[in-house]
Amino acid sequence: MYTAKDRLIKALKGEIVDRPPCICPGGMMNMVTTDVMQQVGSMWPEAHRNPREMARLALGVHNLTGIENLGVPFCMTVEAEAMGAKIVLGSLENEPRVIEYPLLKLEDWPRLSEIRLEGGRSAVLAEAVGILTTQNPDMPVIVNLTGPVSLASSLIEPMSFFKAMGKQPEIVHEILSFITDNLIVFGRSLLNAGAQIINIADPSGTGEILGPHRFREFALPYINLILADLEGSYQASMVHICGRLSSIFAEINQLKTKAISIDSTTSITKLKAALDNKIIVGNVSTLLLQNGQPDRVKAVALNCLQKGVAVLSPACGISTATPLANLQAMVSAVHDFDYLNREVLCFD
């Protein structure tokens, strides 16, 4: 009998398990809904800055939905805030967001703050990880890092940053190197706090925005640096890239992780055929999860599994309005699926 932690770690490594896990990693792929907050009694925005409330809310997601991991944080602004961005923590329905960039010009990047591990939400996150891992030894804890390109686009106006890739590539590499160094330090602190799995989500580093050449130059090497430097600190890793990946299938193959998380715009079949010895995480439509009926959600989830998904997950960050019944329906799919034969066992 596998624990949830053992099952997920093995599945993310591409090893044979009894059945696929169903997860919602956290971070950009937020797992929290309004229903969960109300039933648990742990609310945004307080849960973003209180480690015990953060841990309580992450555990509540698992208890109420059956999702088989604990994941923190619930947004993509922790690193940006620590490096000088001004944010608002949002509300019961809305995640934190950046409201003021610390950089007006890319040349000013040396003014950026390094991520401090003491104080602020960096410390809150590490303490929450410690609580979760200590109190739930059989549950996998996933910590989420904002990918380097996405973090850069939270520190300076995004179009200015993307244009500079063509006009000032040397400076872009300087800022990405600085960001990556800080993400490594931050990631190691969270893994040292007890998390077993790291997820790097880089939604702004997609092939649809960058194209294959710029993805290869500006996204791929820095994500790989993080994974390589932290290897040995984590037991498993995954990388989430948004959008249609068909233009960067070759580059996806070069990511130094076994597990690739995709959204619903990418074909599982085509990606699986293009990958060398990697596994796919995903990719149940978040729009369906919010607006569909439970039986339809389960049917789509089972279809993802039949096509070759090894770890079932929402395709991106879920809406806080997502009904609990739909998340429960997604989870039920992994219990009604013959993993070895890729067949549906039953459909209630």
Structural account:
There is one protein chain. This protein is of the alpha/beta class. The chain has 14 helices and eleven strands. It has one domain (4-10, 20-339): Alpha-Beta Barrel (TIM Barrel), CATH 3.20.20. The chain has helices at residues 4-12, 34-40, 51-65, 78-82, 120-135, 148-152, 158-167, 169-192, 207-230, 249-252, 268-274, 286-291, 294-307, 324-335; strands at 70-72, 86-88, 97-100, 141-146, 197-201, 236-240, 259-261, 279-284, 311-314, 337-338, 343-344. α2 packs across α3 (51-65).
Number of strands: 11
Task: Return the CATH class.
Answer: Alpha Beta
Mean pLDDT reading: 96
Order of helices and strands: HHHEHEEHEHHHEHEHEHEHHEHEE
Fold blueprint:
Blueprint: H1 4-12, H2 34-40, H3 51-65, E1 70-72, H4 78-82, E2 86-88, E3 97-100, H5 120-135, E4 141-146, H6 148-152, H7 158-167, H8 169-192, E5 197-201, H9 207-230, E6 236-240, H10 249-252, E7 259-261, H11 268-274, E8 279-284, H12 286-291, H13 294-307, E9 311-314, H14 324-335, E10 337-338, E11 343-344
Parallel strand pairs: 1-4, 4-5, 5-6, 6-7, 7-8, 8-9
Antiparallel strand pairs: 2-3, 10-11
Helix pairs in contact: 2-3, 3-5, 5-8, 7-8, 8-9, 13-14
Based on the model shown, name its key terms.
348 residues; alpha/beta; TIM Barrel; 14 helices; globular
Q: Can you give me a brief rundown of this structure?
A:
With about 350 residues, this protein is an alpha/beta fold. The protein has a single domain (about 5-10, about 20-340), classed as TIM Barrel (Alpha-Beta Barrel), CATH 3.20.20.210. The protein has helices spanning about 5-10, 35-40, 50-65, 80, 120-135, 150, 160-165, 170-190, 205-230, 250, 270-275, 285-290, 295-305, 325-335; strands spanning about 70, 85-90, 95-100, 140-145, 195-200, 235-240, 260, 280-285, 310-315, 335-340, 345.
